[in-house]
Prior knowledge:
alpha/beta; three-stranded mixed sheet; Rossmann fold; 39% helix; three-stranded parallel sheet; 6 strands
Amino acid sequence: MGSRHAYKLLGPLLRGSPDLWRSYVLQNHSLDAGLGNLVNKAMGAGWLVEILSDGFDFYIELLLEKAGLSLPVRSSALKMMPTRFEVASPFMNPLCGRCGTCKSERILELSNSGYYVIFVGDGLSDMCAAPKAHKIWAKDVLAEHLDAKGVPFERYGTLEDIAAKLFAAGA
């Protein structure tokens, strides 16, 4: 089962107020500490930086705001209504529908527009998209998958590792 189907099943089961959810996210989650440095260096070099996620907009945007970052986000939307939640997937591929956000379509769109696409990922929803990028940084489940498929990539531990390699003096 893909995330899109899971989200349709999950949405009506979610409970709690929007304030409770925001509080929980801010108290219990954080972004990779190296994200700010990587984003600032990439944007300083004139690169387009986007978040493509199969997660939900509300917590991604909340965590980006907490980190003082403003980036375009393509993800599923969790709409918090007064008595229920609704899940919307504005970036899904209707021909596939497996993921809430089709990262592959965005990578192909950017590549076809002349961008050199660097993909950073670690999860199941990255497996289809990563091989379509020009350069891949991977860890965890994605790295295992790419290894098994023989797709070249570079391993990373933190986003700081990527920033150090991409923006090393003379690189």
